[in-house]
Amino acid sequence: xSDHATHHDDGAHGSVKSYVTGLILSIILTAIPFWAVMAGxxxxxxxxxxxxxxxxxxxxxxxxxxxxxxxKAEGGWNLISFVFTAAxxxxxxxxxLWIMYHLHLSMMQG
Length: 110
Fold this sequence. Notes:
By secondary structure, the chain is mainly alpha-helical. Helices cover about 75% and strands about 0% of the residues. The chain has four helices and no strands. The termini are far apart.
């Protein structure tokens, strides 16, 4: 076999340790908001805050540990394309919410 056929890119595959770490972090980041909702000791705003923060952390754990998104793979193009996609999604969702809010204000004045 040629050397090219047996070479694997270490950045594209995770180790068992990284998968287990990702699994444990995912379980913890799922249990925290579950506990916050079931305990019911927080205000609604605090509970929503806990859910949003843990959801964002959960997304980061999934992207880094399981999807191997980092600046090293494919010269950083995966990371750049993800950041661009996330920016477009934020702009679209934020713009839609902004438009709906102002439409709601305009329609309630009569």
